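REVIEWER CHECKLIST
Item 1: Sequence provided? yes
Item 2: Single chain? yes
Item 3: Sequence as submitted:
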Amino acid sequence: MSQPPRVSTDLFFIDGTYYRPMPDRPDTVADRGTPTVAGVVGAGLAACVAVGFGYAFLTGTIATLRTVHVWVGTAWTALVLVYGFIVAPLLRERDTTAAYAIVGRLVPATIVLLPTLAVVTIAAGVTMALTYEIVWPMTTLIRTVLGVAVAITGIALLGVLPTDVLTYRELQSANPDPERVVSLGARTATLLTVQGALQVMMLFLMLRVAAMAT
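Item 4: Structure as written out by the authors:
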């Protein structure tokens, strides 16, 4: 009697399919099909956010613009806090293989989504500040808000985004370096930890600004 083919114990099972480990090369973004899942989801959410801001800006309705600013800013802050205060410790505690898998699945989604949330939130906030004419006179509170806003913008667009681009390029390379990917991912997580703390501070500052505007 013929014996059924034996499945090698070296194989691992993911999403209904058996995969064979590749000891000579870690998985790339293309190997896992990440662009078709996380990348598309992230780009889709970013497109929805951009369209919402465009609609609010073109209609000229300050109430709609305020809604976009509040909800998009809340989503941005929540995502930053999760990445900075939950994912960051995982990247520091886990081994390189597990951390590589985490970064490899997060970056394709966040590389587009995070900058879009940042730009929309900041643009809506600036538009509202000019509409309500709360920039002048330049009080201590307004100076503090502007300083924190500049710091958040700098970290988001000049720190996190370039690091994510480098990480994504490394993941797409023919022979990605897991140590470099994890190192870049940890750098992003550290930046987002600082950014998250600043955004929480900004929330309290904006409560005072809102009270001043009413």
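Item 5: Key structural point noted by reviewer: The helical segments are 29-32, 38-59, 62-93, 96-132, 140-172, 178-213.
Item 6: Recommendation: ____
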